[in-house]
Amino acid sequence: MFAKTLHAALTACALCVAVPAMAADENPIDARKGLFQGMKTHMGPMVAVAKGEMAFSEDTRNHAAGMLALANMTAGLFPAGSGEGKTGAKANIWSDAEGFAKAVEAFRQAAAKLAAADEIAFAPAVMELGKTCKSCHEDYRRK
User: Does domain 2-74+92-140 sit in CATH 1.20.120.10?
Assistant: First the structure.
């Protein structure tokens, strides 16, 4: 299990480096895909900890910190005009920019709370983060 967690953490760290590099190359759709893959990589082990399937550990803290780092990058990966092409982003991300900004900020705040959570507060913080993900997906992501 440690090897799997280590692999996930290293992959997520690599994505944390790769995502800003892709954004710098002005390919926001690919950057978003990398960002969301990184989020998925972090969420899996954190949900397992929240469910009691894995023990809370330093790896858990690293996943939460990685999620916060990705949350802090999210808003910048949706520049005007980046809704065309092979993307799951709905057009209302840009037509309802204020609403989308609020959703991203709620996600960022939940990720910050998760990153600061101790073992007791961790599971509720994962649930809160998941709710912000679900809300944003329902409103701003094509199925």
Answer: yes
